[in-house]
Amino acid sequence: MEKTLNRIHPVSDPEATYFLQVSWEKDLGTGFGVILSDGQCAWTGTVSEAEISREAADMEMNRGKYVEELKKALISGEESSDKYNFAIS
User: Fold this and answer.
1) DSSP letter at 18?
2) How far apart are CA 38 and CA 18, in angstroms?
3) Region 58-70: what's the mean pLDDT?
4) Where does the XRCC4 N-terminal domain lie (predicted)?
5) What is the pLDDT of residues 44-57, one digit of tens each?
6) Is the pLDDT score of 81 beyond 60?
7) Is 55 in contact with 66 (CB distance < 8 Å)?
């Protein structure tokens, strides 16, 4: 299993710091797990392969391109931090 951990500062609360861990087996396109923490609380979830396909279709985006964008946003870390914004709700 592969894992990444990134620090994020959401646009919804730029002074806050959150930590986002993403874990996956084969590649991100086959589904992945997420853990989001503010240092005191943690929230977990999973995204299935079917959900990834459905979201790509909803966005009218090629599935492969959508998975590449997910990789950039969720696991690329600091080099992508100026290209993607996160909002916590």
Assistant:
1) E
2) 5
3) 95
4) 17-88
5) 999 999 999 999 99
6) no
7) yes
Residue 89 CB contacts under 8 Å (≥ 6 apart), including other chains = 12
List of domains in the chain: 2-80 (2.170.210.10)
Is-contact 4 22, C-beta < 8 A? yes
As a whole number of angstroms, the distance between CA 34 and CA 24 comes to: 9
Q: How far is C-alpha 65 from the geometric centre of its chain's CA atoms?
A: 15
pLDDT band at 79 (very low <50, low <70, confident <90, very high): low
Q: How many CA atoms lie within 13 A of 45 on its CB side?
A: 7
**What confidence tens digit (pLDDT) does each residue in 26-42 have?**
889 999 999 999 999 99
